[in-house]
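Dear support,

I submitted the protein below through the web form. The confirmation email said the job was done, but the results page showed an empty box. After a refresh the structure appeared. I'm attaching both so you can tell me whether what I see now is the final result or a partial one.
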Amino acid sequence: MSFIVWNGPAPTTAAQASVALANGVKTLLQLATPADMQIRLVGWGYSIDSTPPGIVEMELIGADVAATVTAHLSGGVVNLDPNGAATRLTLGTSATGFTATVEGTIGTSRVFGARKVGLAAGNTDLNYDWLWPYQTGPVIAVSKFVRVRSTATSTTPTALTYIIFDQL
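What the results page shows now:
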């Protein structure tokens, strides 16, 4: 069963909200697996709204420590099957959420994707979408985390990010 989750609450009367980048490292989106379920990543991506004044690195990483985030609600983790069950991800401020306020100290990480976004005027590389071939995406173990992070030198641009995953 596939799910998609964005770096903001599920939109209702307004568009999906973007998150401001930070001067330094900032987790824009974090997923947390429960103690009895793994997930397989299917895809991820981002859209940055304006050319940044400095180089921005966007990365998808697995981590052993959570960032402190705004907690997602179960309705923000969308099952792509309209008849499917709700997610079993762990929700909460130290679990699945968005817009980190504290990064935490990661002991062990795995990098699944990383991209640098340049600062040239007219840059057209502000959007990125990645899908792994069928059932080849990384598996996130039980009680672990996966994050979309940015490393920037400015808070000017904002970004939409997402992760698509299967519950195993």
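Response: this is the final, complete result; the empty box was a page-load delay. The chain has one domain: 2-167.
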